[in-house]
Amino acid sequence: IRLQKDLAAVSTWWAERTLKEAQNGASHEAIQRLVEVLKAVSGDPNHPVLKEVYRILGERLAEAVLKVAEKLLARDAAKVESSNVPQPDSALHAAEGIKAEMVQAVAMGAPPKHPAMARSKEIEVKLRMEEKSRIADKVLLFAEAAEDRDTQQEEAAAPSVPKVGPASEAADSIEREVNAAIAKGVLETDSRLQEAKTMAKALRDKDGTRKRMAAREARLAAKAKEAEG
After folding, report:
1. DSSP code of residue 49
2. ∠ CA 154-160-162 to the nearest 5 degrees?
3. Predicted local confidence at residue 203, as pLDDT
4. Residue 20: is its pLDDT beyond 90?
5. Residue 57 is inside which H or E element, if any?
């Protein structure tokens, strides 16, 4: 009987300590350790005090997720700040990291509709939208670079007709980038993709014009050779 009383006293002490630590702001890791000790000591996985402890644990887990989400958001912002080119992968990795944290937290008891979880989800969605926007930015930059290279080749060849073919190849490469962006979730109607497609068409049209000009030059050269003969 005395042993039973002693065990009951120990159980009560651990229950009170677990609840007190939880109420006083213990981390979710610390609360989980205390819960396991209380279960082992009391032999009761459904100890009455655990209902309130689990409620607090859920809040701690949700708050921890938000801290991670804010940290990943800040890390992405720093990556963007230090780079001269769009960083879609950075945004994607941050979003995926937040998603993983949320899934794990819910599995451990975090309430999915907790305000901190809702805010974490907002950050995740924002980063996913950023990823798509940065992909579109990269496509437009790619198209602009292709257009610039063609202009340089045109200037270098002047007054002759530039080589036929490279402009069409550049147009093809731009269209591949556009299609890849769409496959990754960028809207086909995105203004940057539309601008890139316009550049691709212009390059293809220029190559058509060059082909006709080159054929004309060839005909003129042939006639001049015949006249000489």
Report:
1. T
2. 40
3. 97
4. no
5. helix 50-81
For 131-163, b where at least 16 C-beta lie within 10 A, e where not — what string? bbbbbbbbbbebbeebbeebeeeeeeeeeebbe
CB proximity list for 58: less than 8 A, separation 6 or greater: 109, 110, 111, 114
Per this entry, what is the length of the chain? Answer: 229
Distances in Å between the Cα of 164 and the Cα atoms of 128, 160, 194, 220 are 41, 12, 25, 18
Return the structure tokens found at 19.
């609840």
State the first-to-last Cα distance of the chain, in angstroms, to the nearest integer: 128
| Axis crossing angle, helix 50-81 with helix 28-42, rounded to the nearest 10 | 160
Kindly report whether the global pTM for this prediction surpasses the value 0.90.
no
Distance CA 56, CA 135 (A): 41
For residue 50, is pLDDT > 60? yes
Single-letter code of the amino acid located at 75: R
Place of tokens 């992968």: 89
Rounded (5°) CA angle 34-40-46:
80
Distances (CA, A) of 175 to 125, 126, 143: 28, 27, 9
Alpha carbon distance 144, 208 (integer Å): 20
Structure tokens, 224: 């001049």
Average pLDDT value for the chain: 91
